[in-house]
Amino acid sequence: MSKTAKWIVAIIVIILIVAGVWYWQTNKVSTPAETGPIKIGSILSMTGFGANIANNEMKGLTLALEDLKKDGYDVNLVVEDSAGLADKAASAANKLISIDQVDALFVDLTAPSGAVAPIGDRLGRVVLYDAFDPKIVEENDLSVKTFFDAGIECRNFANYAKKNNIQKVAYLGPKLPFAEQCVSELKNILGENSVFVGYTLSPTDTDYRTQILKAKDFGAQFIASVAYEGNYISIFKQKTELGFSVPVFCTLSDCLSEKVIESTSQESLEGVIGYTFAIDEEFKKFIATRYPEATSADYELISVGYDSLNYLVRSISLCEKNDSACIISEMKKTKNYQSKVASSGFSDKRVFQPISNYFEYKDGKLSPVDILSK
After folding, report:
1. Which end of the chain is more exposed for a tag (fewer CB within 10 A), N or C?
2. What angle do CA 56, 110, 116 make, to 5 degrees?
3. What domains are defined for the chain?
């Protein structure tokens, strides 16, 4: 072979090698980088007024961690206590991201979630938060909302009240964004003059006597409320003391928790309508096996914790590390995980869309009630 021919062959070989490398790089299947375990930071109100919420969510996170590891996921969970306070939650978020190098955050309660979400946006971490407030997800691009929509639930109750000739309703609870959303729905359906609003300034304010007396004078036939366990203990106790025996519409996990029932007279609880998630029946049996002390109200929060960790870990596993856009995209189109909370998944606006069940407390027992068709 001549020298010229050898050069031509060599050039052709080089071209083929370069073309092959280019083809492989542009057509290879995208897989997550092997950079160690998936790390999730969880900021929960383990102490303080939201402790009942956090402790049950923690049970769900624990169950999810066990199951994920059985399914082959390498996961670490790092938990910090916010005590329900925004400043502690913000400090915890900075620590979890900067020092612990977590891949995403799970947060509960409105104030902590509102403090953590902007930090997630700034530092490029997805924040899945368990709270009512829709403004957090609207104002922070990397936030994803789970839990109920207060507006939808209060709208459902207002329609129920209208159909059942309940002409006057009182709203009692702390003045927070989701409270105003609830009041707006009540007034839209029942009318401005049919709704008395009795706000307290914060969730830690539990003296409702003035508001209850005004609601009584107003002639309210029902109380609607979006609040926390400690608020309901006070509301039920104080309305009994003041001779105001009207039922309450509220979140089952907060207003009919074990602690509320133990500290409240049966008379004061009679007729309460609580809303909760529709939860997989087999998962309920599983919870009962692992946590026999758990009540039906606890199942809601245990399921939220379980699902939240599953959604985060399974979505992160399909993406490159810290690719928040990919993680959110995968959460919205999750197909390989059947959640324990019945839902239609996440909306395009990054909001979880659960299916609610309603129960009425009568004679010391919870019975299903269909408020949507009554």
Report:
1. N
2. 100
3. 38-149+279-356 (3.40.50.2300), 150-276+358-368 (3.40.50.2300)
